[in-house]
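sorry for the late reply, my laptop died twice this morning and i had to redo everyting from scratch. anyway the thing you sent over, i finally got around to it. pasting the sequence first so we're on the same page, its 255 residues, then the predicted structure underneath. double check i copied it right bc i was rushing
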Amino acid sequence: MSENFQPNQESSFAEEVKPIPFIDKLTGIFIAPSEVFENLVKAKPRVIDWLVPIVLLVVLAILSNFLKFNDEKIKDSLMIFQEQRIDKLVEEGKMTEEQAEVAKERIAEFGRAQQIFSSVGVLIGVPIVFLIVSLVYFLLGRLFLKGEVEFMTIFSIYSLSSLISSVGVIVSTILAFLTGSFFASASPAIFMEVSTSKVYILASKIEIFTIWQLAVFAVGMAKAFNKNYTSSFLVVFGAWAVWVVLSLFVPFLGG
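ok and here's the structure:
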């Protein structure tokens, strides 16, 4: 009797782990992510764990776009880049000179509309991207790391790790005003001329806050699947590396 009671008692105790306050998670992601994710896995994720980070990132991204679109120098850098892309299509024979002129006129006419479309894209796109990325890593985790982990656990871990991306949005906005470039970011690409070249795309992907977020997310994956950090980092950064390579050859992914 006593031998059977002890495991049940330990299981009951494990289920009663209380989640740490969300405000502590906000700071913990930056200074002690391991502790945050260990608690989240044991105490189970809550709605606030994924909702607040998503809303925060959406708000900051929309605000960033608003500020950049309302600065003439930054907005002009976007227009110039778009016109250069059109010129390249003409050079490649994918667009006629007449079509190019029409396209450039539309860019000038719909400058304000771009801001609206960009904001709507962020509002809809961020939650969708979070779901897709979380699903991919959930499946990869089940395949390579093994273990019975719920999707919402991975989704919450990814969402919390995105708090680092929110800081990245703030930094990139500041850099945009300092450099006058719409595409400024904390990556090697900031020292390069904006282009659609593979070298520029690759450089833009190696962004400090992206790497930081992935590292923190890998810590969370290790805690969720109860695996060592090496295995988790290989899965997380391996999948990211595949995406980066694909983005070099698929324009849609490279944007």
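The chain has one domain: 36-254.
thats about all i looked at so far, will dig more tmrw
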